[in-house]
Write the structure tokens for this entry.
Amino acid sequence: MTATNVIEEIKHLPRAEQSRVIQFAFELARERQLPGRRLSALAGQMADSSDPAEVKKLESEITRGFYGE
């Protein structure tokens, strides 16, 4: 089943069930966020790096860690 199929199925659920799916998605995103200390450490590494590829990688990791995957 693809994400598109899942989304279409969610559209057909009653509102109460849709609300539960939304709540689950938020909980899942929160669980995937990095703690503040880890984000600070990554930001420090990024600031200290002179390698553009490493900076880009760290920036991406910080973004994922802040917003969740």
In short: The CA atoms of residues 45 and 58 lie 8 Å apart. Helices lie at 3-11, 15-31, 36-48, 52-67. Residues 15-31 form the longest helix (17 residues).
